[in-house]
UniProtKB/TrEMBL annotation:
One of its GO terms (cellular component) is plasma membrane. The keyword Lipid metabolism does not apply. This is Ionotropic receptor. GO terms for molecular function: ligand-gated monoatomic ion channel activity. The chain crosses the membrane at residues 326-351, 381-400, 420-441, 624-649. One of its GO terms (biological process) is detection of stimulus involved in sensory perception. Residues 210-273 form the Ionotropic glutamate receptor L-glutamate and glycine-binding domain. It is a multi-pass membrane protein. Its main location: membrane. It is found in: Cell membrane. The keyword Ion transport applies. InterPro entries: Glu/Gly-bd (IPR019594), Insect_Ionotropic_Sensory_Rcpt (IPR052192), Iontro_rcpt_C (IPR001320).
Amino acid sequence: AARADLQFVLADTLAPLTRRRAVSCAAVVCDTVYLNVFDGPLFRRTAKMPFVMTVVEDREDLLSPNYYTLETLRAARKDGCNLYIILLANGYQAARLLRFGDRHRIMDTRARFIILHDFRLFHSELHYLWKRIVNVIFFKYHTQAAGTENKAWFDLTTVPFPNPIRGVLVPRRVDIWRNGKFHYNRPLFTDKTRDLRGETLSVVYLDHVPSVVVTQNNETKKIGGIESEILNTLAQKMNFIPKLYQPPNADLHKWGQKQPNGSFSGLLGEMVNGHADMALGNLQYNPYHLELTDLSIPYTSQCWTFVTPEALTDNSWKTLILPFKLYMWIAVLLVLLITGSIFYGLATYYTTLQTYKKDYKHPGRAKLGEKQEYYEDEKPVGLYLFGEIINSILYTYGMLLVVSLPKLPTGWSIRLLTGWYWLYCILLVVSYRASMTAILANPAPRVTIDTLTELVDSKVTCGGWGAETKQFFVNSLDEIGQKIGEKFVTIDDPMEAADKVAQGVYAYYDNRDFLKYISVKRKNALVMQSIDDKMENSTNVTVAVAAKTESERNLHIMSDCVVHIPISIGFHKNSPLKPLADIYTKRIVEVGLVEKWLNDAMRPIRALEVNEEEVKALMNLQKLYGAFIALGIGYGLSAIALIGEILHWNFVVKRDPKFDKYAVDLYYMNKNKKQ
C-alpha cells in the first residue's frame, strides 16, 4: 500500500512539471525495493517526460559506484536531465550517492530533487550538501494510526535555504498529500535564490587592483574596485548582506596553494573548506579554479603580460646616424661613390678631349683665323676638381653637405650632372634635417623589451605568483612559452618583484592594470622616502637614496600581451547562487558599468603616474653626444694622417738621394714631370 501511495504522490508531483514542460528528462536512481513504483500508471501520467533509469543493488557502495551506474549518471548529466528521483530504502546509501555526485559533479546539484525522507540524510557531516542542493523535496510517509479513521499520508518537506543551518537541520514543510491530493496546493519547486531574505553571506576577498582595491583610512578599511561594485549590485538585487573578510595570512598565501596534507591555503582554501559563499580577488576563468570552485560568467578580459626593466644603454652617440636606417645609409654611400666616379670619368674624358683637339691639326682649322688661336690657347676650367678620384669623391661629398664648388667645371655634361646632383642633395639634406630635428626635439629613445621573443633572448629571469602560473608556461604548446617556463621563478611579494625588476634581473607576470599599480606605487614610495629624508636634514641618507634611484632602471610594461584571460567572481562549489548571479552579471556588463568601475578604480593610479615625457623639446648635453663623438673621430683621423705625413717626410722623402732641402720645389717639380 505504501508503494502504491508513493506512486500516486510521485505522479501528482510530476504532473505540473510535465504540463509546463519544465523537465527535459528525469534521472531515476532506485533499488529493487521501490522498482515496482515505476510501472504502467506512473508512465501513463507522465508520458511526455523521458526517464533515465538506474537500478542499484543493495550492497553497492555509491560513494564509488560501479561502471554501469557511473555511465548512466554521466549520460543523464550529458542529456541535461534537470530532475533527479532518488528512491532508496537505505538512507546511508542515498547520502553516499549525493556526496559522490557533488564531489565529482556527476549530478547537477542545481536540478530538482525528489528524495525519500531519511534522518541519516540530515547528519551534520552532510549539512554542506543542503547549501548546494536546495531545490529538493523529501517524501516522508506516515502510516495510518491504529484505531483512527485517518489514512496514510505524505509530508512533503524541503531544506530551510536561504536560512542557515545552525547545529540541527530541521526540514521546512511545503505541503501535505492525503487522499490523493495536496492540502495546500503550493508550488513545490520555486527559485529560492531570487530573495535571500536579508541573510548574511560570507565573502572572502583579496586585495588585487583593479578587481579589489583596499584603501586604509586610519583604522578603517574601505573596499572598492570592480568586483566590490558587482557584489553590492548582486546584494541589492538578491537581497543579502555581504560579510567581507580576508583569509588568514593573506599577504603570504594570497590565492592559496595545495598543501602537503591535501588542504588548500589562502583564498581558495576558504572556498574549498566551505567557509565562504563568495570570493573576490581577480580569479582567472581557467580549469584549475573551475575544479575547486564555481565561477560566474567572465565580467571582463584582462591583458596579462610582463613588467620588464628598461635597458640602461644610451644610444645618444648614434644621434648623427639615427635619422636614416641602415639600408638608407647604404644607398647614400653607394650614390656618393658612383656619382664621384662618374664625375671623375667625365673630367678625365673632357681633359683627354681637350688635349686631342689641341694636338690634332685639322685641315680646315687654318681658315678659322683668330678662332684657331682661341682653341690653341684654351685651357679646361674647373676640371682639376675632379681630375683625381680622391678629389672627385671629396668634392662630391662636399656637395652632399651643401658646400658649393670653388669653380663651375667646363663641359656641359659635367654641368648638367652637377645641377641634378644638387637637386638630389637638397632633397636628401632636407629629409635628414627634418628627421634630426624630430630626434632632438623628442626624448631619447628607450631600449625596452616588448615581445616574448625579446624576453626569451634577454638574460632577465621571468617570474610571477603561484606554481600554477609556472605550469601554464611549462605546459604551453608554444616553444617560446616553454622557454619562459624553464626560467620562471615564483615570488610571493609583488613589491619585492618590482625591486628585482628595477635591478634589471627580473620580469614579473600579472595583469596590465596591476603592473601599472605596482610601478606607480614603487616610484611614488621612492619619491616620498627622498622627501622624508630631506625633511630630516640627513644629507648623507638623501644622497644615498638619490644615488640608488639613479642606478636603478625604470619599469616598463610590455606592449604585447602574453594572453587575454577572462576574470570572474568565485562561488563555492556547486553554488545555487551562480545561475541568477550570472544573469545579473551579464546585464551589468551589457550596460557598460564594468568599464566605468574600471576607470574609477584606475583613476587615482593614473593621477599619481609621473609623466616623464611632458617636456619634449628640452635640449641637453646628452643629446649632443653624437656631435662630440663625430668631432672626436675627426680629430683622431686628422692626427693619424698628420703622423703618417710626418713619418713619410722623415723616412721616405728625406732619404731620397735626389732630395735637397734647399731646393724642395725643384725636387717635387722633377718628380711630377716623371709621373
